[in-house]
Design goal:
6 helices; about 180 residues; two-stranded antiparallel ribbon; single chain; 2 domains; mainly alpha; about 50% helix
Length: about 180
């Protein structure tokens, strides 16, 4: 029997959903409920909300980098001198901060989407969740692969993302690669 709230398949004799705890109703058929896929614009707004949330730590990382950059300038004698001997360290620091920012973003999405919530805060605000093709919660490895697949979806004018508005199950390219769906809760 499938839960009408989260789509989890439960034992036929279960009275409550094993995932979300909602009482299960016994019906003549235990077939999966009709799935309502989350469309492109709903997903876009959720992604924008998550982008705002992720901007906070990214601004902090940018401020750290900016302070490092300021240390290379010498303002002591009324003029401005730049210590070019430290440019290599500055470039290495910029690369390290970019990698840290990327890792933060990938982990944010993978951890939230593989959690019992099945959604990032942006997705939760819009009432959508990430599932596998059978409506079950995705593993961390699948969520991680899905989010790394967003790199490929971004290539060539983000056509991989635009596919979410064009496919029958509203799947972006990275959803197809990871065998995932984004559906209404």
């Amino acid at each position: 029997m499938y839960c009408s709230r989260c789509g989890t398949q439960n034992a036929d004799e279960a009275k409550f959903c094993q995932t979300c705890g909602v009482p299960l109703t016994i019906s003549a058929s235990s077939a999966a409920p009709a799935i309502q896929y989350a469309g492109f614009w709903r997903r876009f707004v959720a992604y924008s909300i998550d982008g705002l949330i992720l901007s906070v730590p990214n601004v902090i990382l940018g401020m750290i980098y900016g302070l490092q950059l300021l240390r290379l300038f010498d303002f002591s004698d009324g003029g401005v001198d730049f210590d070019f001997g430290q440019i290599g360290a500055l470039i290495a620091s910029a690369i390290w901060l970019a990698m840290l920012s990327f890792l933060l973003q990938v982990l944010y999405y993978a951890l939230f989407e593989s959690s019992r919530l099945q959604a990032t805060p942006g997705k939760m605000a819009l009432g959508i969740v990430v599932t596998d093709l059978t409506g079950r919660r995705v593993s961390f490895a699948r969520a991680l692969g899905r989010n790394l697949g967003k790199i490929i979806s971004s290539l060539i004018l983000s056509i991989g993302y635009i596919m979410a508005g064009l496919t029958a199950r509203k799947q972006a390219l990275h959803d197809m690669m990871a065998d995932c769906l984004v559906v209404m809760r």
